[in-house]
């Protein structure tokens, strides 16, 4: 199990606390420092069953600069979104937990973290 976090994020810290309370074995990826490649983002999206715009933080300053909210959300625009997430990792929703069963969850709630724990 791996968890993508921003240590400054309270939801990330909460998710880590729940993983620790459960005694889960996991690795931490500080994705703002260890930026995922476009291929890694595509792989996580596949595991999540989501599109890149589903995990984009559209309220971030860089999102506003890019005009992200106005971008098309279709198959033809998918690569543009993935490239933006890789270039500006702050846009990636957090935390993301990749479970041992090959799935992943955006773990913004305690329930989502518990869901990921149940998959491993």
TrEMBL record:
This protein's record includes keyword Oxidoreductase: yes
**PROSITE patterns, per this entry?**
ARSC
- Give the residues annotated as coiled coil: none
Instruction: Please give the Gene3D superfamilies that the UniProt record associates with this protein.
Output: Glutaredoxin
Q: Which PANTHER family match?
A: ARSENATE REDUCTASE
The similarity comment for this entry is: Belongs to the ArsC family.
- The protein here is known as Arsenate reductase family protein
Organism this protein belongs to:
Streptomyces maoxianensis
